[in-house]
């Protein structure tokens, strides 16, 4: 195999550092293991962030997400770990991680975790008539 799972997130310079713009990344094939039963848990992860100086490189994000495939993790813990790792890598102005887990035992779980840089204010949206 030419690539392997890894927790290493690579970055590149934000091409528009002076502008607040939203980057949305949809990851429909996230898997980890239930820490109680060892059975697989499936989720769709959505990342929404406003970059500051750095953006996350997508191939490294793919191998990072892949690295959870054989790890046991509670939904709340894995969502917050993804948030923490991305904040450490890119130090964004804003980042939201939404983990929408498939049904397990008749229960759906959705976990949303957010980070806001100190002093960052959400821009006022422009409404066009």
Q: Explain this structure to me?
A:
The protein has 129 residues and is α+β, with helices and mostly antiparallel strands. Helices cover 19% and strands 39% of the residues. It has two helices and six strands; from the N terminus they run E-E-E-E-H-H-E-E. It has helices at 58-66, 75-90; strands at 11-13, 22-33, 40-50, 54-56, 94-104, 107-116. The strands form two sheets. A four-stranded antiparallel β-sheet has the order 2-3-5-6, covered by helices on one side. Strands 1-4 form a two-stranded antiparallel ribbon. The radius of gyration is 16 Å and the shape is globular. The model has no long low-confidence stretch (mean pLDDT 95).
**Largest sheet data:** 4 strands, antiparallel
Write out the strand line-up for the largest beta sheet, numbering strands in chain order: 2-3-5-6
Rg calculated over all Cα atoms:
16 Å
- Return the average pLDDT rounded to an integer: 95
Structural class: alpha+beta
What letter string, H or E per element, gives the SSE order? Answer: EEEEHHEE
Number of strands: 6
Shape designation: globular
Query: What amount of the residues lies in strands?
Result: 35-45%
Unreliable segments (pLDDT under 50, ≥5 consecutive)?
A: none
Distance between the termini: 53 Å
Discrete helix count: 2
Q: Estimate percent helicity.
A: 10-25%
């Amino acid at each position: 195999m030419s690539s392997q799972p890894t927790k290493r997130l690579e970055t590149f310079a934000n091409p528009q550092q002076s502008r607040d713009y939203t980057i949305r990344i949809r990851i429909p094939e996230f898997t980890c293991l239930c820490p109680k039963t060892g059975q697989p848990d499936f989720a769709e992860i959505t990342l929404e962030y406003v970059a500051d100086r750095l953006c996350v490189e997508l191939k490294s994000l793919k191998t990072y997400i892949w690295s959870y495939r054989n790890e046991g993790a509670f939904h709340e813990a894995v969502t917050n770990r993804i948030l923490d790792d991305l904040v450490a890598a890119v130090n964004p102005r804003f980042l939201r991680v939404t983990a929408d887990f498939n049904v397990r035992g008749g229960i759906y779980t959705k976990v949303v975790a957010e980070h806001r840089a100190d002093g960052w204010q959400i821009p006022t949206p422009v409404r066009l008539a």
